[in-house]
Design goal:
- The chain has 246 residues and is an alpha/beta fold.
- The protein has one domain: 3-Layer(aba) Sandwich (Rossmann fold).
- Helices cover 35% and strands 14% of the residues.
- It has a seven-stranded parallel beta sheet with strand order 3-2-1-4-5-6-7, with helices on both faces.
- Helix 1 packs across helix 5, helix 2 runs parallel beside helix 3 and helix 3 runs parallel beside helix 4.
- The longest helix is centred in the middle third of the chain and has 26 residues.
- The chain is globular, with a radius of gyration of 18 Å.
- The relative contact order is 0.16.
Length: 246
């Protein structure tokens, strides 16, 4: 009787190369950039703000809701370094009942979260297709899969990111790896500035209702480092007592 030995599973790709991370000045974006650097990649972050902590990496001041600014920034990085991966993470919200949120604030959420995601992917594609193992990771949300009240702008934008990413996976199959990540709540400054009714409780992290963003960042790097031809299509990463999922 002949015994067949299965080949060992392929190891993590060790060379990440240049990875653009939008919304990389703080929160999940900064955690993703740190995780990329720890895995041997070279993160370049885009954000409208300066990083909250000084790190030894390239950072460009970019309005991630402005397509022209995104295109200029991506072109600059692509020409200077090439682009191996993009993590479209930039996001914002505008809490409140639909008729209580000003139209400008509502539309700004769509521009940053959805149109900005499409813009960075579109601008990066010519450079990605020259990379040895190109990857796109988009950051949606559990609120891109399930709706809560007082979050129409955020949910509309993140539902859009889900649909966009699933379409990209079809359009770019065999050309660029595409992964959708839907995080639940995280212990970041994302909730700063909200009315108290829209903030998590002070002990939400201790109650496992919020994740450490570094845990989500590790999931992103897992997707980025799969061998060529291996696709992690979608991941939902939530705290164990996530209030908006399932």
């Amino acid at each position: 009787m002949q015994t067949r030995i299965a080949p060992a599973p392929q190891a993590r790709t060790t060379t990440l190369g240049t990875v653009i991370v939008t919304g990389g000045a703080s929160g999940l974006g900064a955690a993703i950039a740190d995780a990329v650097a720890d895995a041997g990649g070279v993160p370049t972050t885009f954000d409208l703000n300066e990083p909250r902590e000084q790190r030894d990496r390239e950072h460009l001041i970019v309005d991630c809701g402005d397509r022209a600014e995104i295109e200029r920034a991506v072109t600059a990085i692509g020409r200077r370094h090439g682009i191996d991966a993009v993590v479209a993470n930039a996001g914002m919200d505008a809490c409140g009942d639909f008729d209580k949120v000003a139209a400008e604030r509502w539309e700004r959420v769509i521009h940053v979260n959805l149109i900005g995601t499409a813009a960075v992917v579109r601008a990066a594609l010519p450079y990605l297709e020259r990379a040895p193992n190109p990857r796109i990771v988009t950051i949606a949300s559990t609120l891109g899969l399930r709706v809560l009240g007082a979050a129409t702008a955020y949910s509309a934008s993140k539902f859009g990111v889900v649909g966009l990413t699933r379409g990209l996976a079809l359009d770019l199959a065999g050309r660029v790896g595409v992964t959708l990540v839907c995080p639940g709540g995280m212990n970041t400054a994302f909730f700063d500035g909200r009315d108290e009714q829209f903030k998590p409780s002070a002990d939400a992290f201790e109650k496992n209702q919020l994740n450490d963003p570094r845990a989500v960042a590790e999931a992103v790097v897992f997707a980025l480092t799969r061998p060529k031809g291996v696709e992690v299509r979608e991941m939902i990463v939530t705290p164990s007592r996530e209030t908006s999922w399932p």
